[in-house]
Amino acid sequence: QGQYPGQGQQGPYAGQGQYPNASYPGQGQSANRAPYPGPAAPNPSQGAGSAQGFGSSQGSWGQGPSGQYAPPASGPATTTQRGRGTGMKAGAVALVAVLAAGAGGLSGWAVSSQTQNDAATTSSSVAPSASGTRVIQGNASNPDWTATAKAVSNSVVSISVKTGQGTGAGSGVVLNAKGDIVTNNHVVAAGGSGGTIAVSMGDKTYEATIVGTDPSTDLAVIRLGQVPKDLTPITLGNSDQLAVGAPVMAIGNPLGLSGSVTTGIISALNRPVTTSTGDQGQASGSDSAGVVVTSAIQTSAPINPGNSGGALVNADGQLIGINSSIASLSSGSSNSQSGSIGIGFAIPVNQVKIITDQLIASGKARHAYLGVTTATGTATVAGVTTTGASVRSVQADSPADRAGIREGDVVISMNSTTVTSGESLVGLVRSRKVGERVTLTVVRDGSQQKIQVTLAASAR
């Protein structure tokens, strides 16, 4: 397992399997973004799935090409901050770089910008609501983004982490008036080991401590030591009601440029994204050490290092996701780049709410568990071949076993959502609550049937 990329002479990370290499937009000594080739998704035709049966096939790690430093970046970002990132283990903090892959989903590694010690045309209004601030758009088909930005800007903060190994930064979103802030685990992972966490809101900075972290979903909650009177919680949306093509805004702290907003659309929903970070090797419920699988929102809103943990909101200013990862061109390509190429990913807000409610209540989170190991496979019904999650084994007395799922079944949907791969099933199971009843559509011996399963809590 690899770790976060360091600065300067830090070595490259190898790619794996049949997928292209992910690049780390790390920062050099002059804030030049340096791409590192990261691992891609395991080959879905090899290896066994998770020992805990979350459904992901895991193949062997392959060797990829060496990384190279990118040319100096232009614009103010190259002079404003030398580097930002999280996960100080070897130095990452901002986002997770991910590459488009094949049927097995998307894969990549946490990326960051970081520094080490060695170096509108319609009338809209903004109104308070019970849980935060909401926007009343005058024209839903032509949003007034100025009103949206005004509504959410005070609910999104900049986060900096400092340890003996270096400093890093990311973003966060205010959840409530008590001072609880959600961010990515990889943003604050080092803050609990002798590090300090600072939260900036405008021209004021406050100390914060970790309430709880959940490496397997890459989410964390921190709490302000002193809560300002004008703290503004964000309004939560419903990610189950999202539609492809809907307009969205991303807001955060890219490359240290706090309060930056970008707009785009929802490009896809339930996109299986696999990311891997060295600091997440003990991830409870992850399918292998350091692997996080998310059924993500894909967006065209530009996301860059430092946006990690920031907000993805709809035109009404409601939080619909936590920005966590980006896709990158292959670092082996002459056109390689480590910033945004218009393919970013966010953790859906409904999953964020499930995890953060638990972290605030107890500092820990439980995860839904199915009890199968899978690989990406195909099934044929009435002459039509469909790709899905092929069940390789079923754990005894697991939810899947009790529901009657068998080895050889191919899962092609959960509730109304299509399952396209082993990783897709993992992400969908991870997004549900413990104790929730779901309907799996499976193909067995050429026939399609529906099986209801009550998800249990993972032992990990």
Overall morphology: globular
Helical segment count: 6
Number of DSSP-assigned strands: 30
Tell me roughly what share of residues is in helical segments: under 10%
**Biggest sheet statistics:** 9 strands, mixed
Spatial separation of the terminal alpha carbons = 19 Å
Please state roughly what percent of the residues sit in beta strands, choosing from under 5%, 5-15%, 15-25%, 25-35%, 35-45% or over 45%: 35-45%
Instruction: Count structural domains.
Output: 2
Would you tell me which CATH topology of the largest domain applies? Thrombin, subunit H
Poorly predicted runs of 5 or more residues: 1-130, 278-289, 333-337
Provide the structure class.
mainly beta
The CATH architecture of the largest domain comes to Beta Barrel
Which CATH class of the largest domain? Mainly Beta
The average pLDDT score comes to 73
- Our Rg estimate from Cα atoms comes to 21 Å
Molecular structure report:
The chain is mainly beta and 460 residues long. The protein folds into two domains: 1-364, Beta Barrel (Thrombin, subunit H); 368-457, PDZ domain (Pdz3 Domain). Helices cover 10% and strands 38% of the residues. The protein has six helices and 30 strands. Strands 5, 6, 16, 17, 18, 19, 20, 21 and 22 form a nine-stranded mixed sheet that branches. It has a six-stranded antiparallel beta barrel with strand order 10-11-12-15-14-13. Strand 10 and strand 11 form a beta hairpin. It is globular and about 65 Å long.
